[in-house]
Sequence to fold (110 residues):
Amino acid sequence: MLKTIVLLTASNIFMTFAWYGHLKNTTIPLWKAVAISWGIAFFEYCLMVPANRLGYDKGFSGFQLKITQEVITLVVFAVFAVLYLKEPLHWKYFVSFTFILGAVYFAFMK
Fold:
C-alpha cells in the first residue's frame, strides 16, 4: 500500500507541474507550454500506471485508487500553489479538503 501511495504522490508532482507549472510564465507561446507539459506528463504516466496496477493487485478497488489519487492531488496542489504560485491558503480550502477526507472515509469503509 505504501509503494502505491509513494508512486501516486510522485506521479502527482509531475502532473501538477505539467498542468500548472506554466502559469508563472505566461509569456511563452501556448504551443510551447503544451509541448513542455506533454513532456512532463510522460513521466507522470510512467509512475501513475504502475501505481494503479500495483494498488489494484494489492487489493485496492478502482474506486479506492481514484479517491486516493484525488486526495494526493489536492495535497500536492495545495503545497504547489502556496510555494510555487505564491497563492494564499484560505480557510475555505481547509473546509473543502475536510469534505473530501469524508469521501475517503466512505470509500474505504467496509
